[in-house]
């Protein structure tokens, strides 16, 4: 939620000076989040990566990538040594690139 609010609002080029002074999240909303189902050890076990930080990146299809080029970017990142890539959290399924096409 914070990323959506801050990332989208602070990313507007028309805004030259903006400061977030307060953010209140309703307790009822917070209670809907139970936390992660497991910790870093499970992630390390899945990736078989130990003894170093995990390295990843976010690929931004909303900057104009087609589904094919998005897949190529993911491939190149992983082939180049990244441990993971993640989808841009605000993209979901948009007209210029449907989620199913990226998947």
Automatic annotation (TrEMBL):
Q: Which GO terms describe its cellular component?
A: chloroplast
**Species name for this entry?**
Berberidopsis corallina
* Entries under Pfam families matching the protein: RuBisCO_large, RuBisCO_large_N
What's the name of the protein? Ribulose bisphosphate carboxylase large chain
Cofactor binding description: Binds 1 Mg(2+) ion per subunit.
GO MF, one annotated term: monooxygenase activity
Q: What class of enzyme is it?
A: lyase
Q: What does this protein do?
A: RuBisCO catalyzes two reactions: the carboxylation of D-ribulose 1,5-bisphosphate, the primary event in carbon dioxide fixation, as well as the oxidative fragmentation of the pentose substrate in the photorespiration process. Both reactions occur simultaneously and in competition at the same active site.
The family note in this entry says: Belongs to the RuBisCO large chain family. Type I subfamily.
Q: Which Gene3D superfamilies match?
A: Ribulose bisphosphate carboxylase, large subunit, C-terminal domain (3.20.20.110), RuBisCO large subunit, N-terminal domain (3.30.70.150)
Which PANTHER family would you find in this protein's record? RIBULOSE BISPHOSPHATE CARBOXYLASE (PTHR42704), RIBULOSE BISPHOSPHATE CARBOXYLASE LARGE CHAIN (PTHR42704:SF17)
Q: What is its EC number?
A: 4.1.1.39
